[in-house]
Amino acid sequence: MTTLSKHTRQPIVSVLGHVDHGKTSLLDFIRGSTVAAREAGAITQHIGATEVPIDAIYSMCGHLLGGKKFSVPGLLFIDTPGHHAFTTLRTRGGSLADLAILVVDIKEGFRPQTYESITILRQYKTPFIVAANKIDAINGWQRSDDIAMNRIQNQRPMTKTLFETKLFELIGTIYDKGFESDLYFNIKDFRKSIPIMPVSAKTGEGVPELLMVLVGLAQRFLEEKLTSETGAGKGTVLEVKEDVGLGTTVDAIIYSGILKKEDTIIFGTRNEPLVTKIKALLKPKPMDEIRDPREQFESVKEVHAACGIKISAPNLDLVVPGAPLRVVHGDKAELIQEIKSQSQVNIELDKDGLFIKADTIGSLEALVKESQEHGINIRKVEIGNISRRDIMETSALNNPLERIIFAFNVKILPEAKEELLNTEVTVFNEDVIYTIIENYDVWLVRKKEELEKKRREDYTHPGMVKFLPEYVFRISHPAVIGVRVLGGRIKVDMRLIDQDGKTVGHIKGMQLENKAISEALQGAEVAISIEGVTVGRQIKGGDILFTDLPESDAKKLKLMDVLNEDEKDVLNKIIDIKRKTNKFWGM
User: Fold this and answer.
1) What CATH number labels 463-578?
2) What is the per-residue pLDDT for 3?
């Protein structure tokens, strides 16, 4: 048995937060500043990740560290901002990120993607810090390179008050999501409280402190977790994409071991694991040389954890984002089984419910968890774009409330769009889980009302009206009178009976404030035209009239839960009238 040597790898740091709150700007500033600190070691950007070496952090943090040295070799920032990358990077059902930065615009506070991000961080139990960004946008804020405590203290009173107001709002929102938090310099136990770092990604203010806290947390709490074997490489697929001249390639994060050109590797796919051989390991040139994204990639012979890398190999179009990758060593069959089990989506499904599609295993799990916590039943889940088959299958469901597809960050294929036009399937396609569920809630209320209305319309409904004697507009052909709806509802074309059960014509038309209407509910006063009666003969002022129900409808209405209490009372009165001539009517 081979003994594997071990070394401390750099922690993987994911950046999450709402759109426009400064995730990319923060990484851009870190990259730019580190490149400027050339003597401290140039920054390297691999695919999907940015490596910041420890020497560059020493240079940026300067006196903040007080000469302290760390065993971690640096920080690896996941360079695809947002929770999308966070949920994609997973291993054994947990997050691959060792740490996370939740970026919040201090003036705007929490927004939909912020709430979603903190929920996902809690789900994966990932330690995180909050970067309270855009402090430079606070009215009257004066930039300073001093430490945060002094920077805040030295602001003008009004500016300091504005900052503190926004800070307390932020602390309150974080508390509502289940976490204690405070400015980092007030925290005594970082295991119990979330540190808040006031920063400006625009000016760089506070960024050195943010890096200092990240490295400090990694050193103090994650040292054991950051021990990486130098044996066969292990990683997770971040993206699968088409590259000009290379065909389908995989962007991956290697979190343990070594990956070498010519290695045989196994990828997780939607079906059976893919065994393939690496043709090329590719990475862009160091950041200080990248001035044009069209620059060619540099081919390397091997990479060590933790890093981001582009892999070229045959048949990669079968691979799914979020799937594991392993270098083949020892028992290939055992490894294939391990990959298969990790690539499968282990979600408890319901017999009935809606269909969920997502772009990666991680985002699928996140959407399912949020949906289930919301009390939504899930019938089926899949990774990938929405196909025509998906639409047809969903369309065939009996329950109209289940003809739903939740689609997270995927495309509706052209033939599926075409099929969608001819069905009653509703697709909620968003890149924010929070928005999908919010939109679904609005739709569900509206759809239930629509179905209820349709269900009620399938039967003649009970109604009771009083003939208002002061409103006789026409005596006959047809009679036009004013009535008040005492209970239930009346509709055009309904027949009317009197209290003895005699037919007194049918409602030909109805008006309210000189406008034609088709239905009037309890409490309404409307003019109705009745064909087949003459005022003063069959009907007279003050009469109480009822809608004439078919006996079959009366029986169904008694059994079905479609009437409110008021309508049930009217139905019982009609049944009593009918039983004057047929004592078994409606039974």
Assistant:
1) 2.40.30.10
2) 45
